[in-house]
Amino acid sequence: MPTTARPGPDLSRAIAERDRTRGLLIAFEGPEGSGKTTQQRLLKTWLESEGHHVISSRWASSPVVKPLIKARKRLRSLSAEEYSLLHAVDFRQRLETTILPALWTGKTVIADRYLFTALARDAARGLEIDWLLQLYAPLVWPDLVVYFALKSQDSSRRVAATRAPRFYEAGQDVTGVEDPLISYRQFIGRVITEYENLALIFRFVKVNADQLVYRQHQQVRRLVQKVARRPWTEFSAEAVSEWLTRHPKLAD
Amino acid sequence: MADSTPQTGRLIAVDASRSQDLSADAEAIAMRLRARGVPCGISRWDASGLFGDLLMADRDELIVAPRTLTLLFAADLMFRLKWEIRPAIAEGHVVIAAPYVDTAVAVGVGVGLPEAWVREVLRFADAPDTRIYARERKRDQGWRTKPTRGYAEFCATLLDAAPAGLARRKGRAMSIEWLAAAAKASGSPRGRKALEALARRYGQTPGAGA
After folding, report:
1. Kind and range of the H or E run holding A223
2. Domain limits for position A14
3. Is A55 among the domain residues?
4. CA distance to partner chain B, nearest, from residue A198 (Å)
5. For residues B8 and B92, is the Cβ–Cβ distance under 8 A?
6. Facing A246 at nearest CB: one of B163, B177, B181
7. Domains contained in chain A, number
């Protein structure tokens, strides 16, 4: 039976060489209301002022896949598996067309939510974590995962202060609770539990999201200044070589 | 004396590397079953409309990877299972799922994906009662770039637009090779015996008429 091609020596060499000049991949994770987007903007501004080329990639934002997800979310007809699979499609599309090309050309990528969002949310929906990991395989490991830790009641309070949680965000598809805020309170507790488990396995760096925005930003700056690259050759070789196979000119 | 045994539904998976072959065989099976009074329906590719909707995107942005297409196939299959296949089976109907898991595996292997990964992604799919591999016609030809025709053709169209392209003929040849091996391993190349047994069983059950 034919299987996928293993990266040849040329491809491995190209990846190893590029590892020295490639951009950093920084992922921000955390529950709703933890201030990820604010911190992502602050970090982007600071890095750009330091002369770095930075792009940010938001969750479920691929121009090709976003309309598909949005239309189906509106109908509230998605099962947990479909919800999960469609977000995996969006992630793969952004990885292939935005994240990897930017990293390859030396740009820093700040991901406002990365695949850990899917692992936490979908595991909270009752899906098996090993199946979820397969959807995102082969993985491209971030060099740094910053987890903005917040208690479930604080997340609920912050979200409720500005708007009602949306149907899937509130987990109403699994809780069956009609009131979005009550459902959110139940669901986010499960999501945070999953996040806490993932934080241990994937070595997230925790930032207390209860602190002042400025203090959090200072901490994030320090983390980024001292971050060491996770070598692609060790952590992400399969994903990068698969992508390069389809873009052979880049490896020349 | 009427048989009062409750009739249970059945799932027949029909797979092929080329969508025209798939449709032709699925239709033929449905006709044979209906002629014997077996209530049956065909669950087809893109019932969810995901692939059709994807084509609405800007052509310049429509550069996708093989894994992306497999994940999309999985989302579509989940939709079919939820809305078409499982409810019909629960009502005692026979569902002909064309394509099913093996088509995605065959096409995936043809475009260079690891078989194990495709199978893992699709592991939520119910095991079919009968597997049928459609007769491969025009074996020496590659996939056509006609995205509305079927999954393999959709993949061929979009992957050809990608920078590295896809050798359609080579991909389809690998796909046929994989399907042939799978058919051999299943012990019943086209599941004809199993199908006949199914038709006989339903044909003898009163009230099973369409």
Report:
1. helix A213-225
2. 9-149+191-243
3. yes
4. 21
5. yes
6. B163
7. 1
